[in-house]
Automatic annotation (TrEMBL):
Keywords: DNA-binding, Transcription, Transcription regulation
Organism phylogeny: Bacteria, Bacillati, Bacillota, Bacilli, Bacillales
Keyword Hydrolase listed: no
Domain HTH asnC-type: 1-81
Name the record gives this protein: DNA-binding Lrp family transcriptional regulator
Superkingdom, taxonomy of origin: Bacteria
Naturally occurring in which organism (per UniProt): Paenibacillus eucommiae
Length: 163
């Protein structure tokens, strides 16, 4: 991938709302060249989606997010891919990663309640052939996501005490 496309990706990752015109100005390139590069990357599925990062803790819509470590026995001839495909097709699954280390897959899911997450793990995930074990971790608070800090810093109003 050429340098221009990499620079465009960096700028879009920082703010997906940037126009081809603004990116061209920032990079000192022709707007048509930037627009063509973006179109090519969309066609090649380098750019898959433009998304908004939201701080859900500021919205009254309560969601429960869990990270689930999954140990599996790979399928002969297909390895981890066949099981991963079964898992990522569930609508609750937001992300799925093949991992190195103590477990094989890391599944991120979202539910309306702890009960929903528990039902997903017991009824859907654990019942898949070749799933050996699961370990569920609930996200209690997000401090930072995709490079964006969510925590509002409050000024320290304590009085200084000196000896």
């Amino acid at each position: 991938m050429d340098t221009l496309k990499l620079k465009i990706l960096d700028l879009l990752k920082e703010d997906a709302r940037r126009s081809a015109e603004l990116i061209a100005t920032m990079l000192g390139a022709a707007e048509a060249e930037v627009a063509e590069a973006i179109s090519e990357m969309e066609a090649e599925k380098v750019i898959v989606k433009y998304a908004t990062v939201m701080n859900w803790s500021k919205v009254d819509d309560e969601k429960v997010t869990a990270l689930i470590e999954v140990q599996i026995t790979p399928e002969r001839g297909r390895g981890f891919d066949a099981i991963a495909e079964r898992i990522y097709l569930y609508p609750e699954v937001k992300s799925l990663y093949l991992m190195s280390g103590a477990y094989d897959l890391l599944v991120e899911i979202e539910g309306k309640s702890l009960k929903d997450v528990a039902a997903f793990v017991s009824d859907k995930l654990s019942s898949i052939d070749r799933v050996l074990s699961t370990k569920t971790h609930f996200i209690l608070k997000k401090y930072k996501q995709d490079g964006i800090i969510f925590v509002d810093h409050e000024d320290d109003h304590r009085m200084l005490i000196s000896p």
